[in-house]
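Take the subject:
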Amino acid sequence: MNIDNNGLEIDSTVQILNKLEESLKSKFGNGFFIKPEGIIDNIALSCGVLNILIQEQIARLAAEFDPESAKGTWQDALYERIGVSRLEAQKTTFVCKVQGAANLKCTAGSMTIRSKSDKNEFENISEFVIGEDGSALVDFRCVIDGAIEVKSSDEFDIVIAPDGVNSVAPADDIQFAIGRERESDDEFRIRFRNAKATNAKATRNAVFANLSKYVDNAAFLKLLDPNSDKDIPPGYIKIIAHHNTTDNIFAKAILDNVAIGPLFLGDTEVTVYDNQDNPQKIIFKKADEINIDITAELKIRSGYYTNTVFNKVKDSILKYIEERVFGLGSIIYATEFIIPILETEGVEAVQSIKVKRNNIDEEYNDNVTLTNEQVPIFATERIVLNEDE
């Protein structure tokens, strides 16, 4: 096997057997050669076969760890290391005008409509109320995945609807997010290349790649749009970040990297200036910092000072947290911290361990679940340890 800057090249069967012959000649004489008979020959042939299998396995693993050749689940795991995830199958959504009795309240999924042209069916995504004018704009989603196109000229039959609903039609100013099949390996690879291109602009993952430099880890940044989150209205984008710079610098990075067009959602509003010195209002969501309390009851080994061990345990927990990285929307399981605790010298056993949000009137629990807009914050002073007598 040869490994150099050009990649990896597997030895052929002939090359492997020739090398075995040369190594065995030093022991059995220059007249020795491998033939299909004899104990030594069979052992040599078996070693050659094993050598080939090992090289093939190494080559396969090398290919799976190469961003340009990885496939399937290997590709998913590798690309996620830089925060790029495969796009799962999406359903087409669009805004439809529903007409019926004023003040009629309809629950999510209570309506199903069918296109007269292609027979595709759609369900209403959320609850809605028909207004005093007898109409309501309602989000409908296709019941199947894929790129199902919807036009303003399309007509629909009502399959199922609450009593009082009379008709449906695409909104005059139709808004829709077209669906897609699950992203293929080749499509995923192209998008990965775009995400690495820090000078690229406009593509969602290029934006993510460019904004990632302003967070300590990709887990502290999320870009949400109608394709990735059904709660985001068409035409909007929501950037959530636990950034490591000023709001102004981060807002300017958004301006420089997000193509003109989408409207922003969030609670942090900053005015920055474009290349022509024109003021631009940028809105994003600064992640809410949630302080996390950890408490544990430990059994200390005989001969160790409790306070010394406790200090080391706190350092071990914080080191684990730094390496583990709890990002936006994390679920903090208390049992995760058992490993670094037990690895600390002087700890014999963990009798119990719990977590909770700081300054919130709630009991310690087995886990804390955060939203996509929240990031956990840990500190030494919020780790409380007790000794089991």
